[in-house]
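Q: Here's a chain of 320 amino acids. Please give me its 3D structure as tokens.
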Amino acid sequence: MILQKFAEKGFFGSLKAILLILGRLKNHAVAPINRLDNYRRLKRLDYTIEFVNEGSIKVRLPEVSAIEIILGIGVSVNRNTNYQNRPFAEVLLRKTIYELYESGYISRNLSVIDIGSWISDNSIVWSHYLSDTAKVIAIDPSSDNITYGQNLANVNNIENIKFVQAVCADKSGIKLDFDGTIDHASFRVSTTQNYILSNTIDEIVAEEGLSIGLFHVDVEGFELSVLKGAVSVITRDLPVISFEQHISKENINDISSYLKDFNYRIFMVNEVLPGCDLDCRNFLAFPPKKGLPELTSFNQQNGRDLGIYSAVIGDPLIEI
């Protein structure tokens, strides 16, 4: 039967099919080896990752068994691998937010919203910045991402993070579907019976009774909808807002116009994000009542030494 199918494809079709099969077999064989190599490095680090650009905060990762590594199973295996690289991703954004806290521009007594928290690399680090009763609200639609974040918090004895499994939009009760996997999803209004009901940032924050100093939004193109569901938080607290956009396929003017109605000033973080789409950029919006922060400057031609790859010639933050 198999030989008959190959014969039907012809010589080149059969050769292509064989090469595809061999490629898949190779990938299945190589993947466990790569995971073992990653975990050898992680073991040498004692499962501890240092965020050198954010006060040298150290985060211990959950340990996993050899069988989990070989088979690539369990919530932590691949997430631990991704976590190893996070201190060196979005370096300029990380340095900037760290300085905003160190300078007192953002009060440590105010809480943080981190929506699209993914593997909680930001949530865990930012939790160290906070004092008093302030906490991080880490929001993600993936139960596995939430579980991993909770594991990280437990391993590191962190108690000031509230994990919330939810999808947020401009209104609650909207039926949403998604592209890709739920672990890194891009949402849209559902036209099927497989949907998730939306919540809003305002509702989640109201339940916690918190005031917000930093609002980080990374939701794969759904940022404007999330921000529209946070009118009360933005109006009342005027937090610093960080958001991500793919500037070649998303209209940044939609978000900037929305935030400028609250008199925010909006800046593009001047760095390319290795490992992301080439058009992916971070943005920071500063509230009107506080003016602009004073940030440490650096010589752009030495940016690579800092792990910063500038998008254009110019300042670290470029107003739009």
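Q: Can you summarize the key feature?
A: The radius of gyration is 22 Å.
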